[in-house]
## 1
Amino acid sequence: KLVIFDKDGTLICFHTMWAPWAKTVAESIAKASELDIEEKVFDLLGYCTTTQRIYPGLLAEATSFIIQTELVKLLSAEGLSTERAWEIIKASWNEGDDDDPALLKAITDLQTLFKILRRNDIKIAVCTSDSRKGTLTTLKTLGLDQYIDMIVCGDDTNTQPKPKPHNAWKICGKLEIEPEHAVMVGDTQADVGMGRSAKLGLSIGVLSGIGGTDDLKAEADHIIRDVKDILPLILPHKDWREYYAYSANDRVLLEPYDGLEESLETTQLHENKQYSKMVDLVIFDIHGTLMCTHSRYSKWMEKLSER
């Protein structure tokens, strides 16, 4: 009845948004403090200059205030007064959320995904550690604000950082949804940890952002590639099948059908009860399904051709 999404790394690409931000802020802090401190700032934030990617850490999981506080501690450890450190951090800080298309990249066709959820009477919430101002800008730019029932941000009053359950319970209470009927979707251990600690119905980890399988598996009930793949986990089989089309290497979301009558094929599918049952047997092909056809048969084909 409710899906709670994290934002960065779950709905939008974390790296294209925050890697440039990390470099800009680190350079600004170093210049204002007159300290050779950029690498220490990067380490604190969780930014790798070699790969130019963000890894699990403060930037990926903490609120703006927590990050600022830790940066102040870093400058204080370098000999600056706390007052001067706060002045530098405040002056160097800027909102990372941006409406620049070069930086703001949706993970998948989010408008279609949200339309599908709304079509199936599933409410949508976003819970992020980022500021409300930046979050609203991002969601409006992506055209998603019209589909979202509730947004909880890191600088809102009466909130607590993930993985504490407070924000999930706050969303469920406001939208009048029992926690066991809600799902949390996110790319970090803190995201799925919030779902777990709040005792939500499902905690789903996505591999589109910061966390890898090892980071997510301890708290996640399921781990999927990205949010496009959540439908089979939250909708009956007879319902989610109509929302996907398949290419050679991927599946694509389809807009919900708005006609008054369903096609004969869809109607027959809905009436066929076998699709809603658990199966007793799975039959696998071998080559190309369980093992790589190319590595096994490429040399074989070459030898056959030579003969």
Note: Residues 14-101 form one domain.
## 2
Amino acid sequence: MWPRLMANKWFGLRPKPGGDKFNSDMSETDDEPEPLEKSPRLRRGQSETLWTQCVDNYSYRIFVGTWNVGGKTPEETLDLDEWLNTKESSDIYVIGFQEIVPLKAGKVFGAENSRSADKWDTQIRKALNKNGAAAENASILRSATVPTSAEGEILLDSGHCTNNLDGIDMLKLDDINKWRQKRRYIRIASKQMVGIFITIWVKSEVRCHIRDLKVSSVGCGIMGCLGNKGSVSISMSLHETSFCFVCTHLASGEKESDGIRRNSDVAEILKRTCFPRDSTLDLPQTILGHDRIIWFGDLNYRLTIAESEAKSLIHQKDWNTLQLTDQLKLEKNPGGLFDGWQEGHIDFSPTYKYVANSDEYCGTQEKRRVPA
């Protein structure tokens, strides 16, 4: 196994079948999305009148978040509610992580381990389904004589039932299935490549409008092909609109040559990302072929000013002046790599690089960085 794995990674050989597979909560018993032929499609040249007759407009709230977790696995007590803004719930959550495993040689060159990804998915499931699902499932839980203790809820969430929990009767299988169907959010896709991990969750009532889920991973790390840097992208259709979510971890470093490497990573991701072809449908195979593209992650672009000047502007909360020195913003200028792309409004401090579990920037000589 080791020689074959190394050969595939080192020499860019065609991946084994399953490389485009992903994890999902959906099963064969779930409701299928609406068949494509039932949805009207418009062609160029059709009149504005026909367009207004055939096209329905839908509004959805999509949350996209990214977090470089520095090789740490989540504690069971970790509360993601504030980050995910669960009080103002979204219809779709797209969450990307970088460095969910330490980027050491054994992790980069060895077989992939999903334990950390599974733990992050568990924490996300707990946060998204904690409040709404508890209320929605109250009647089912009571009718199934389920204990209200935390232990009982955990047993249910993991899909197990027992007749040895403080004398409580065993749950009926159909009661458990009803409870599962009542889950507020379900995971439609998650995919890991070494330390890069993307996971997508949707409200149960939205799931039937999503189809054509596909994934594509591109390694840009060691030797230009390993997965310690690169991207994991997910393509999907929501009603008649195609979406592409690109979770990336680009080359690090503050030197001018490092900026060139980051741009090279982006160019490689755009060039090499290819979603599996569907022989019956004309679906986008490249990133730029989609109607809506959201690019996020640890892009590693830096501020091109001295550390003292950067911290002074941060203290003044002068975000506009800071952004004038942002390498990514420069790449959005005409002729730049991200020319034509739009970025959300920035009104917060740079998120790199903090002392762990604090709001203080790294100050020791070996870890000191210009905030970015």
Note: The longest strand covers residues 210-219.
## 3
Amino acid sequence: MPSREELFRMACENATDYVYKLVDGESVLQEAISEIKQKIAERNTLLAVDCEGDSLSRKGALTIITVATAEKVYIFDVQKLGQRVFTSGLGEILEDKSREKLMFDCRQDSDALWHQFQVKLGGVLDIQLLEVIYRRENPSESTTNTHQNSNKNRRGFQSNRRSQRIHEIEKLFGFGHCIELYLQDEKLSNVKDKGKELLKEDKRVWMKRPLTDALIQYCIVDTMAMFRLYNKMKEVNGGEQSRLRVASEK
């Protein structure tokens, strides 16, 4: 059985080949929840979560929630199944603080989940915040994407530059930019770009059914790319990781 690290490396290698399940019916809903719970029980499974919708917020409409393990992506059609998606067991998983979940800028997702479905996210590790910490400790990579030995201290660890930048306002990078900067994967970037084009053409595209293949691939990339970003950035200063977990719960 592949280790968690091996699964991370395998994840996201080819977006179009990644195993996924579109959950848009009662029977497949129960099957998907059962599979996710089984993975959680078998090993210390890390999840990646992303929401989509029309003007996603407490006032908009959450229509899709994607939950992925490093092996498989589950795309839940909330527009079709409604509250049943969460009362069938997914809500419990999302609220479980002991079950770590990767998300990217979870603010709107969290807002929509709570105000529309009374689901309070727990156990979130926000990759957008992790990237800020990683960039702080690896300043050369975020600008030139090359390793410079001058940024290391004499013991070989990245210097923590927080004290040198205490009065600066940290810039937040978008998900697409992080993929380009750190993963440099043209396939993933192309999928993201195609999804953005569809959204520009029709702002209510996430309300349309059936979901197009381009939108399904977009959902897949939006979750599985988080595994690769996390795998790259997870070795940041331990104290900062603790602060990240607290900040992600806000």
Note: Confidence is low (pLDDT under 50) at residues 146-164.
## 4
Amino acid sequence: MKQQDMPVGMARDLEETDSSSEEEEEMEGPEEHPCIMWTGGFRRIPIMVFHAEAILTKDSYIRLIGERYHLSFKIVRTDSRLVRSILSAHGFREVHPSSNEYNLMWTGSHLKPYVLRTLTDIQKVNHFPRSYELTRKDRLYKNINRMQQIYGFKTFHILPQTFILPAEYQEFCTSYSKDRGPWIVKPVASSRGRGVYLINNPNQISLEENILVSRYINNP
């Protein structure tokens, strides 16, 4: 179940629809809908809630909010069939990837700063700015290494000994001569365990792409 902030205008419409006066709202409360969760002071801020089972049930009542307020989405540089199915099941209409008329952009790549600056209050994206500083293994390693230098190794002693290859290949070989492993190899920008393997010798490593090599922890 996922949540998304609603467009400002939609929030006003929902608020006006749900009660004609403050007294009436206090007595009856906001309209109950499985895709609406009211938050904030006096429960006046609607959050849209997505239900995975809607893909199977194809409930017209679930699609009501998306269809009534003409909510739309676009998918860019990725094939997120599950995301497309969930949004469509909630009444969202898909628009062309080049369109600027959308409420939600689901992209497989990180957005440039100028794109983020053009977003309006009713537009959301699925990436935080510079989130790759944490999600890319090489960037995460470098950032933790920098924190170790600033705040001390003991404070950020949360990673095994690690090297980024091919740039640090000689350093890795020196360390390998003292501890022959096993070592674990990971692509710097992959996920879901793809491309991960164990080695016992530097000769087993391909240096054609950037990779991260860490001392393998048998019982983490």
Note: The chain has two domains: 52-129, 133-215.
